[in-house]
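Please fill in the sequence for the structure shown.

STRUCTURE ENCODING:
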């Protein structure tokens, strides 16, 4: 495994839901108009995954397959979990 390469690392995005770290392109906050448009477009085309369990959306995760995942966990918290997962993967070399 190359340094910085992420393989088989799952990141908890809340309520028992996980996402493959190697497939994540961006983790963004949902407040801006472009993010709201991104969310609506994904919903229209069937690429939206709602993992909020009915709670307020606090982060939007964009994947390499162009799927949009909504999470009720803060973007900063998910980013921290993401970074912890990559550090674990680097230690296994």
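FILLED IN BY: designer on duty
SEQUENCE:
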């Amino acid at each position: 495994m190359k340094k910085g390469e992420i393989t088989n690392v799952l990141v908890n995005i809340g309520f028992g839901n996980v996402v493959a770290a190697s497939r994540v392109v961006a983790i963004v906050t949902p407040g801006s108009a472009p993010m709201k448009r991104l969310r609506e477009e994904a919903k229209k085309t069937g690429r939206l995954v709602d993992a909020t369990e009915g709670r307020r959306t606090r982060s939007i995760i964009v994947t390499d397959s162009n799927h949009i995942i909504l999470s009720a966990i803060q973007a900063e918290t998910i980013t921290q979990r993401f970074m912890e997962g990559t550090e674990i993967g680097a230690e296994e070399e």
